[in-house]
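hey can u check if this looks right to u? its 268 residues, i copy pasted from the old doc so theres a chance i mangled smth
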Amino acid sequence: MSAIEDLCRTVARLRAPDGCPWDREQTHQTLTRCLIDECSELLDTIDRMDLPHMREELGDVLIQVVFHAQLATEQGKFDFEDVARDINDKLIRRHPHVFQKNGKPLGAKGRKKLGLNSPDAVLTQWEAIKAKEQGKAKQKKRILSGIPSAMPALVRAHEISERVAAVGFEWAKTSEVVDKIDEEVRELRDALDESPARAEEELGDLLFAIAGLARKLNLEPEAALRKANEKFTKRFDKVEAALEPRGSSVHQSNLEEMDAIWQEIKHT
């Protein structure tokens, strides 16, 4: 028996009538927070390239997938095998430059004939195949359909930018995106004197433009922001540590003193 089969059996046992009380009371809805938390912990190990802990966190994410599949199995909807089969079939369908329709690897001649030799070309093909599949489902789908509204806003902005770029709605040069960001900053400055609602709108436009720049630079904005958060946290911890020998704290200090320490730390 494979390790994944062992895991599915373990989760099913936890859900059995005489299984674990906590596991038995879980639903798809109650597990959403667990999934978000586990994905966040996995992303942290990826940012640090902490491979030993990444292995562990991948397992924690996997058990969320298995758990949801088990709940669906109990409802007679689908099981883990269905999930794995569906995603495997999708990968084969959307990589015709790698696989034949029967799932067998495509030969060198076939790959050359398709001429898909760049990530951008592959992405464009992926979106075209996806749109065709959705059309067959007799659902009027648009390019931006199906991007979850519950997705973190910065990640969603990146996905929106990526999808429209794949169909040619794209800045020609990176410098043009930077110019757009400068424009949004100016509009935000003007909005500060108008109303909070107007400022919020312009701030959103600025963040969206920044997400577009990240995509243009082949960077993931959520990862970039996580690194900035971590850098700020470490520096502010050092500010607190520097105040302690002075018999002071961030609560007793003032902005001028804290900023002076911050600048010291920044340039060391």
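DSSP finds twelve helices and no strands in the chain.
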